[in-house]
Model the fold of this input.
Amino acid sequence: QKEVEQDPGPLSVPEGAIVSLNCTYSNSAFQYFMWYRQYSRKGPELLMYTYSSGNKEDGRFTAQVDKSSKYISLFIRDSQPSDSATYLCAMRPISSGSARQLTFGSGTQLTVLP
Amino acid sequence: DGGITQSPKYLFRKEGQNVTLSCEQNLNHDAMYWYRQDPGQGLRLIYYSQIVNDFQKGDIAEGYSVSREKKESFPLTVTSAQKNPTAFYLCASRTTTDSGNTIYFGEGSWLTVV
Done:
């Protein structure tokens, strides 16, 4: 079983819809949670990161962490065609010292239809 | 502008040849990474380096080699021993002096074996 599971999609929604992207994980040591957006044939870019449980909002994006369920979500409100991309979750434990700490999900491909 | 530069963007290799992918960063980051991305498998760590003249194997290091002679540079050589090298290769870097939550990616290099 992978440490981080992410539904690969593809997911298609109409413009203006609310999108929910999710990841589950098995390692209870994970404390930092990140979401990356990757456009086709480009490198991933960091969208948001959160520490421990709770919500964090940035514009149309909300990241949610439920550590008790080992479940994280990214919500996109008023989705736009420009949001069409692959979304990767990533996470790491709180302990420092090792540079390899990040564990990535496999990514969810999202298409927002105009 | 600060960032990570990968070259070449597209590369074709004949079977049996070694090829080297370049990665340069001017972010003054200590840690650098090489990932491989295949459809449906997310990012898999090949090698990483936390400081100059030191590097560690990731999850799929077989058939690859790296060097870290300068802080700014972390080239990846795909050797003839790598049996399935056709993939999208991503270089990344991160500072290790703070919480280190932000890992920055280059634009990637597409390698195709012909």
